[in-house]
Amino acid sequence: MKDCVSVLVGFSPHRIEVLPWAKRFMEKADVIILEEPANLNFKRLLEDRFNIEEYLSGSDFWFPGFVKETIKILKEQFKKGTKIFQVEPYFTFLRKIQQEEDKSLLNNFTYKKVYEVEHIATLKLLEYYEASLSKEFEEVVKAVIEFSKADAKRFRLRDLLRAKAVTRLIGSLKSSKNIYIESGTIHVYFKKLLHQMLKGIAKIRHVYLLEEVLKPLVGKAWVFPPGETLTLRYILKNKPNPEKEKLLAARSLIYIKIIPKEELTPTQEEPYPHLKRELLAIKMVNRLSFEDCRRLYKEIFFIKNYKEARDFVENYIKTRLGGIDISEV
Q1: What phi and psi values does residue 208 have, to the nearest 5 degrees?
Q2: pLDDT attached to residue 325
Q3: What is the mean pLDDT of residues 96-122?
Q4: Are 192 and 323 members of one domain?
Q5: I need a surface site. Which of 39, 42, 60, 194 has the fewest CB within 10 A?
Q6: Minimal CA–CA distance to 314: which of 289, 287, 295?
Q7: Which of 210, 236, 255 is a domain's end point?
Q8: Are the CB atoms for 30 and 56 separated by under 8 Å?
Q9: Structure confidence at residue 211 as a pLDDT band (50, 70, 90)
Q10: CA 138: distance to chain centroid?
């Protein structure tokens, strides 16, 4: 029995600003499990036998700055003897499917399931893009909801496959006592599955890496934006609430226009640039009704600069709704 094993799930966005907090927990672990598919060059990278730029170019990393800074921390831990694993089987399965020309892998149940949920989620995303260009606001909202439902099924499968893989890995480790598991903030279902699968084997805890920063501001460990809140409702199979779901979908359409898409680098003056902007965006959209979102969507749709879109929405709230209250988060 591994009842003395301590497992900590660290929930965080893939932002450079969270890494000082991640490092604090990684330094206490003798095993680190990353949320990424296995890469054949990863160990060579940790051993300084592979170039980081070549490593980044060989894979589809959405946040290269985050990866570079994470690798620096991981190299330090690797030199101290920490075992480091990449575990994200969904994308490993998906990559193999994409590389297999005759699709014979689809005869396998798991590969087939991965292919199906990915195919449907991609289709629903394309339908949303199409609706956003030519349809009325209600149709765009409907497309967002349909994509969120498909995305939730994808997340449930991702979390299930990863929880099973992590459970097998922990079962194979003989002397590890403290295990740190990297996880995106939306993977609440993954943590729930770990509690079920590792019951009697390990003690499971979780932490939102920025909760010490957030709690003094909003009284919560983490605040989900409207799109993630909507998807989480479907992931966790909450009781249907069509009006609430429509409002979340509508707010998500405004939210994505008023947050930065590029990676922002923390500075001494601004240590949490993403958190600051995302909190403000959440406060803003939480003030909006469905009709407010309808009006704003048409006005800011073609604005590409997030700051311009944010200023437009902020002015709308100030002139029509009386400003922004921090308690609205």
Answers
A1: -85, 120
A2: 57
A3: 91
A4: no
A5: 60
A6: 287
A7: 210
A8: no
A9: very high
A10: 27
Is the domain of 185 the same as that of 299? Answer: no
Chain-centre distance for alpha carbon 142: 23
328's CB contacts (< 8 A; 6+ apart) are: 283, 286, 287
Tell whether 305 and 172 lie within a shared domain.
no
Three-state SS string across 67-123, please?
A: HHHHHHHHHHHHHCCCEEEECCHHHHHHHHHHHCCCCHHHHCHHHHHHHHHHHHHHH
Q: 319 and 177 in one domain?
A: no
Give the count of domains, the chain: 2
Query: pTM for the full model?
Result: 0.93
CA dihedral angle for residue 67, residue 72, residue 73, residue 77, rounded to 10 degrees: 130
Do residues 229 and 163 share a domain?
no
* Per-residue model confidence (pLDDT) at position 25: 97
Q: Is residue 131 part of a domain?
A: no
Overall average pLDDT of the 181-205 stretch: 96
Residues 54-69: tens digit of each pLDDT: 888 866 667 889 999 9
Q: What is the mean pLDDT of residues 270-294?
A: 96
The average pLDDT across 101-109 equals 85
Distance between CA atoms of 185 and 284, rounded to whole angstroms?
21
Number of helices (H), then strands (E), belonging to the chain: the values are 14, 5
Domain extent for 254: 224-328
Range 116-145 average pLDDT: 96
Name the DSSP letter for residue 39: -
The packing angle between helices 273-285 and 211-218, to 10°, is 40
Residue 2's pLDDT is what? Answer: 46
Answer yes or no: is pLDDT of 324 > 90: no
